[in-house]
Write a structure and sequence with these properties.
Layout: H1 13-22, H2 26-34, H3 36-39, E1 41-44, E2 61-65, E3 72-73, E4 88-94, H4 102-111, E5 117-120, H5 122-127, H6 129-137, E6 141-144, H7 157-176, H8 185-188, E7 194-195, H9 204-212, E8 216-218, E9 222-223, H10 232-246, E10 249-254, H11 258-273, E11 277-283
Parallel strand pairs: 2-11, 3-8, 4-5, 4-10, 4-11, 5-6, 7-8, 9-10
Antiparallel strand pairs: 1-2
Helix pairs in contact: 4-11, 6-7, 10-11
């Protein structure tokens, strides 16, 4: 059975923004951006371990994300995103782990000493826990993407909550070996409180629930449209053309896609050659380690 995403609707941003705006007073915007400096800890990689391969792209810095200040990020779905500087990008991968392609993605990232965030689906994570632990062991951030990749919008409220919670519990167990499956508990206390909706389809009820439980909901700022079949070279051109316009942002990719795994080495070289800097995300409560702040420079 395949858990790979086949499409991402691109018309959700305005509708999702309405969900947010109904719950977000106008004065929130001013307070939101005023709180950025106080609530986000920017950790540079100046004191990090050196990347063993000189001239690699590297990971420029670590950005600790506080869910209280950034409950929802990504301009494709929400009015706000992370405070990235010009030519700063965050790499995110959805729908893994996938045994045929995720190792290739990990190899490409390791070759350039780059760290990313993987939004994992619970069922394949439970089937390949060794691959989940491998992702974590290499310093990447493990995040959540439901149990079986349904469209949450079409589920009944209890089923939607159960789908999210079961996915979180499965990924937590894959990483740590144990996890509670009691409703709400695993969801309330994931190691990494980051979540992304399949297809970016969400409901006001689940958005409120995730916010109450301190879990940041991630959209994206740009993507490679890799759910559409295309050659790696075509995908590379599409993504780099979009990045030239955006100049920064949270990038969405899918590690189960063979075309993405094939394209990734060239895309990382493009980032390096065009002076982009990769930012690695961790929860605000996470300890920063040398493994998560590699920088060859």
């Amino acid at each position: 059975m395949s858990y790979r995403c086949t499409h991402y609707p691109i018309g959700n941003a305005k509708r999702n923004a309405k969900y947010v705006q109904r719950r977000m007073p106008l004065k929130f915007s001013t307070a939101f951006y005023a709180a950025i400096a106080a609530s986000m800890i920017w950790t540079t990689a100046a004191q990090a371990a050196e990347c063993p391969r000189k001239g690699a792209l590297g990971t420029s810095r670590v950005l600790r994300v506080d869910a209280a200040t950034f409950p929802r990020v990504g301009l494709k779905s929400f009015p706000q995103t992370l405070p990235l500087g010009d030519h700063e990008v965050v790499l995110t991968f959805d729908d893994g782990p996938w045994s045929g392609t995720t190792p290739k993605v990990l190899a490409a990232l390791a070759h350039e000493c780059v760290l990313a965030t993987f939004f994992l689906i619970g069922k394949p994570a439970s089937e390949h826990p060794e691959l989940v632990r491998r992702i974590a062991a290499q310093g990447h951030t493990i995040a959540h993407h439901t149990w079986s990749h349904p469209n949450i919008k079409y589920l009944k409220p209890d089923a939607a909550t159960a789908e999210i919670d079961k996915g979180i519990a499965a990924v937590e167990k894959a990483v740590h070996g144990t996890a509670t499956t009691a409703p709400g508990i695993a969801m309330a206390n994931p190691t990494t409180p980051f979540f992304r909706y399949p297809y970016f389809e969400m409901t006001p009820a689940t958005l409120d629930l995730l916010q109450k439980r301190g879990i940041t909901v991630f959209g994206a700022d740009l993507w490679a449209s890799d759910w559409e079949p295309m050659k790696p070279a075509q995908q590379l051109k599409l993504l780099t053309d979009r990045l030239r316009i955006a100049r920064k942002g949270i990038i969405l990719l899918h590690d189960p896609k063979a075309q993405t795994a094939a394209m990734l080495p060239a895309f990382l070289r493009y980032l390096r050659n065009n002076h982009y800097r990769v930012v690695h995300l961790v929860p605000a409560t996470a300890a920063t380690t040398a493994a998560s702040t590699q920088n060859p420079k």
